[in-house]
Amino acid sequence: MYHERQTRQMCLVHALNALFQKPQFTAETLDEICYSLSDKRWFNPHRSMLGLGNYDVNVLMSALGMYDYQRIRFENLDAIIVNVPTGNYIPFWKGRHWYTILRQDNRFFNLDSKLSKPEEITDITQHCRSLLSKTEDSNQLFLVGKGDPTDFVSVNRSAFHELLIVCDIYHGKINNHQAQVRLNSEL
């Protein structure tokens, strides 16, 4: 399993390479995407002003689009790309961290570049619920995979909770009545 360790603020590079399971992207590749989105070289709005990484979601979506990946429905899921706030070392600096949760042989693996090695996630629905319940909407989860572009959907927070309930039903963890009760309480 391909996994990179964190360097500078290059977590989106690491998250994308974890998704593709090879060194597909570099800082230079993502910088070029930034320049294609905005021609500003010094204070490009799609990365940190120091040029150390910290890329935004527009860079992610452009990079995924280069290889026909999009945000998709859960059944076509190849990975979940996660974006979470990081501790601020510089006042007034809002940093974020990207990482990939890869689906492989119907098992999920956390390929966070801050981990020394990949970690299997034994209960993906609980893991995603935990991510969604933290820090009042500031955690972001992007379902990515390949498929028919007409099947692509943008998944908001409540729709993602519904997807998690469907996953629990599919895996036999809950029945339809329990799902309806949970759906009513979570939404």
List key phrases describing it.
187 residues, alpha+beta, Cathepsin B, Chain A, 6 strands, 35% helix
- The string of secondary-structure elements, in order, is HHHEEEEEHEHH
Average pLDDT, all residues: 75
Q: How large is the share of residues in beta strands? A: 15-25%
Radius of gyration (CA) equals 17 Å
Largest sheet: 6 strands, antiparallel
Instruction: Name the strands of the widest sheet in spatial order.
Output: 1-6-2-3-4-5
- The first-to-last residue Cα distance is 37 Å
Integer tally of domains: 2
How many helices? The count is 6
| Strand segment tally | 6
Q: What is the CATH architecture assignment of the largest domain?
A: Alpha-Beta Complex
- Class from secondary-structure proportions: alpha+beta
Helix content: 25-40%
CATH class of the largest domain: Alpha Beta
> Which stretches of 5+ consecutive residues score pLDDT under 50?
149-156
Give the CA-based shape. globular
CATH topology of the largest domain: Cathepsin B, Chain A
Catalytic activity: Thiol-dependent hydrolysis of ester, thioester, amide, peptide and isopeptide bonds formed by the C-terminal Gly of ubiquitin (a 76-residue protein attached to proteins as an intracellular targeting signal)
Domain Josephin: 1-160
Pfam families: Josephin
Enzyme class: hydrolase
